[in-house]
UniProtKB/TrEMBL annotation:
GO MF term list: cysteine-type peptidase activity
Residues making up the signal peptide according to the UniProt record: 1-23
SH3b domain residues: 148-215
Domain of life: Bacteria
Entries under Pfam families matching the protein: Cu_amine_oxidN1, NLPC_P60, SH3_3
PROSITE patterns: NLPC_P60, SH3B
Protein name: SH3 domain-containing protein
UniProtKB keywords: Hydrolase, Protease, Signal, Thiol protease
Family: Belongs to the peptidase C40 family.
GO biological process, one term: proteolysis
Domain NlpC/P60: from-to ranges: 222-346
Protein source organism: Paenibacillus dendrobii
Length: 346
């Protein structure tokens, strides 16, 4: 689907409030109707397509609302299925059907979604409530107000700046959030930044690195795993030198490479040597592996003498050879035979 084919919500007046009276019903037609205004948590939503009222049905762009609520969207054009993930909630819906999947359970959809003129339309009330939001229609002002459920369940672990932009150099510091403070994460911007709301209703951006908060999610872990591997690949071909200092990047041994990549990417301080690194984090099984997990192997007569980073798709990123330096190779053969344990540290 192209960018121009924005996702839309299908919003009927009867779905906006309970038991509407005739006077509350949205006017029919669209020739002289006042434009619909949308607010989410008090902020006006600037939409890609102007909201419309067509014969009592309000059409509202979907992508902007989901992004404001912090949901991550994927679209399968083959089977016309949209999936929205927000925290621990996963909503999957196939356009045109009367049921959807909410965290694996079937739920009814009173008004099925449809595709019209290249746009995907989906019922607002159902989707908003599934993601924990409430929807209210103000007929006098022709305003849709969406209120998301705000829970301040993310703790600040280390003093961190609340910034005006997700950029340490360009964004200014709004305030310092102290350890123990609580925030609500509204959006995962990327591997490095979270958009948050404070308990005094200020909004801004803080570091997503594990050092600063206890916030976790599968989607953020995926972003950070990708960032970790991308950064490590910057050093492909760098020479292997046993005992290389982790304070420089001209040469590496296996554990100095891992230590440097985790420090520079996620500000995670790992021990210097592999058998100590194997004591950090939690153990995971091979069928649970995700990008960024550490794999440990026997080597040089030691129970644990080598470490590598799992790069996804049964590949590992590591260094042990003067000929190859830092490189990626398949996690099979000798590596499966010498494998000891896997650890997850973020």
């Amino acid at each position: 689907m192209t960018k121009s084919k924005a996702f839309l919500f299908l919003l009927t007046a009867s779905m906006l409030y309970a038991a509407p009276t005739h006077a509350e019903t949205a006017p029919q037609g669209h020739a002289t109707a006042k434009p619909v205004t949308i607010y989410i948590d008090g902020r006006e939503l600037q939409t890609e397509v102007e909201p419309l009222n067509l014969n009592g049905t309000v059409l509202v762009p979907m992508r902007g609302i989901f992004e404001e609520e912090g949901a991550k969207l994927t679209w399968n054009n083959m089977n016309k299925t949209v999936t929205a993930i927000k925290g621990s909630t996963t909503l999957t819906y196939r356009i045109g059907e009367h049921t959807a999947s909410l965290n694996g359970k079937a739920v009814s959809v009173d008004v099925p979604g449809q595709i019209t003129n290249g746009y995907t339309l989906i019922p607002l009330r159902f989707v908003s409530e599934a993601l924990g939001s409430a929807v209210k229609w103000d007929q006098d002002t022709r305003t849709v107000r969406i209120t998301s459920t705000v829970s301040y369940d993310t703790s600040i672990l280390w003093g961190v700046n609340l910034r005006s932009l997700p950029d340490a150099e360009k964004g200014s510091s709004l305030e310092m959030l102290s350890a123990g403070a609580k925030v609500h994460v509204t959006r995962e911007v990327n591997a490095s930044w979270l958009e948050v709301q404070t308990q005094d209703n200020r909004t801004g951006y803080i570091s997503a690195k594990p050092k600063y908060t206890d916030y976790t999610s599968p989607s953020l872990a995926g972003l950070q795993g990708d960032a970790l591997i991308a950064y490590g690949k910057k050093y492909l071909g760098k020479p292997y030198v046993f005992g290389a200092s982790p304070d420089q990047t001209n040469t590496f041994d296996c554990s100095s490479f891992v230590k440097r990549v985790f420090q520079d990417t996620l500000t995670i301080e790992l021990p210097r040597v592999s058998y100590d690194q194997a004591k950090v984090g939690k153990e995971v099984s091979l069928n649970e592996l995700r990008k960024g997990d550490l794999l440990f192997f026997s080597a040089r007569g030691l129970d644990i003498g080598h470490v590598a980073i799992y790069a996804g798709n049964n590949q590992i990123l590591h260094t042990y050879s003067k000929e190859l330096g830092v490189h990626v190779e398949a996690f099979d053969g000798q590596w499966k035979k010498r494998f000891v344990t896997a650890r997850r540290v973020f």
